[in-house]
Amino acid sequence: MTNSIFPPEFLWGVATSAFQIEGAIREDGRGSSIWDTFGTSAEIACDHYHRYHEDVTLMAELGVGAYRMSVAWPRIQPDGRGAPNPRGIAFYDRLLDAVCAAGIAPVVTVYHWDTPQALEDAGGWLARDTAERFAEYAAILGAHFADRVKMWIPINEPMVTTIYGYAIGEYAPGKTLLLDAIPTAHHQNLAHGLAVQALRAAGARSIGTANHHAPIWPASDSAADRAAGVWLDALLNRLFADPVLLGEYPREIAPHLPEGHAEDLPVIAQPLDFYGVNFYEPQGAAAPGPGNPLPFELREIDGFPKTTNGSVIVPDAMRELLVGFRERYREKLPPIYITENGCSFDGINDAERIDFLDRHLHAMRSAMDAGVDVRGYFVWSLLDNFEWSQGYRPRFGLVHVDYATQRRTPKDSFTWYQKLVKP
Questions:
Q1: Partners of 297 in the beta sheet?
Q2: How many Å apart are CA 404 and CA 171, to the nearest integer?
């Protein structure tokens, strides 16, 4: 593949998140996050806090036009409220200056799952007040960094926080509320809308989203399996896209939302400059079996190869998702950026990753040919990093990280992507 099949202005980038790479969790006045107390440790991670110059140099060598990063909320507000921590602000000043000096556009995610523990102790995303605290945090970032940030993403993948963090307990904060976790989705949606307002007031130039989305594949054509697929689509996809783009919630979800949620919809549905799609794989669904309190069951999708962390590889599902999004939201859908796409494979000679990325880019190009307005693509991830509840085992990076020595080694996929994005 060459980039000649994409528009000249197409934006090529890479992505990371603060908790997964920074380390230095006890430095510069940073407070504790829910992940620090969840029983997993990213105390060193990729030591990006101390090695960011090396990592920015790698991005410059790679030749990407944009770097999607996140800011650690506890590094800016150790307790999730109040005046900003000047040492945390100073770190991101240094980082953003280095990225800009390398000719790379910063794309900043305000929140990538690292809620300050003090806010979680006060209710976390189950509490409406957290949305207000988040707006104050976003305003701080806007005031300090809007002059250098090209694009803003308030919240990364709110579905993951709701489902993995509050519904099934696989991620921090480890709650198992099942459908009673749905209010956390509304409060994140509200936080998104309030943050958009705060960032625009601070002079932010371009604001969008980064939502996880997946086409839902029923296990069979039976009415029960298809109904389960509709419910799962409402929970994983429409719960987050519909309020932002249409100003309404899916009817399946409405009974589980907090009282008075409709009054927040005008704030949630702020006009956006782009819509970020994080895509990895489709999701299977089936009618629930006996004893299942949910209106669906998750089903593994058979017949496709898998990555080393068990994700099925179905590149055409990306085309299916993007075309379906255009058909569903039509004129309400702003230009799309693929804000994450990537895979876990071992080794520096990573032909499997090259094949994965190449095939997904062809699928994305097919969606563009079908009329979907895609403006950019970000590989997850620049570096091997701390992968949440899976620790350091999955390796998603274009750059191999030896966690014992912190040595960075570009993989074959790094060279492949370097040639692809070269003008």
A1: 286
A2: 25
Annotated ligand binding at 20? The verdict is yes
Which residue has tokens 């030749």?
63
Structure tokens at 397: 């990076």
Confirm whether pTM is higher than 0.90: yes
Q: Are 53 and 113 in contact (CB under 8 A)?
A: no
Contact assessment for residue 99 and residue 56, using Cβ atoms and an 8 Å cutoff: yes
What amino acid positions are annotated as catalytic residues?
157, 340
Domains for the chain: give ranges and CATH numbers.
3-421 (3.20.20.80)
- Cα 396 to its chain centre, rounded Å, is 14
Q: Is 156 annotated as a binding residue?
A: yes
What is the pairing mode between strands 407-410 and 399-402? Answer: antiparallel
The C-alpha atoms of residue 305 and residue 116 are separated, in whole angstroms, by 38
Question: Do β-strands 216-218 and 283-286 pair in parallel, antiparallel, or remain unpaired?
Answer: parallel
Output phi, psi for 83, to 5 deg.
-65, 150
pLDDT (tens digit, 9 = 90+) per residue, 179-194? 999 999 999 999 999 9
349 is in an annotated binding site: no
Q: Decide: residue 120, CB within 10 A, 0-12 exposed, 13-18 middle, 19+ buried.
A: buried
**Cα–Cα distances in angstroms (integers) from residue 193 to residues 165, 204, 250, 381, 390, in the given order:** 21, 14, 18, 27, 31
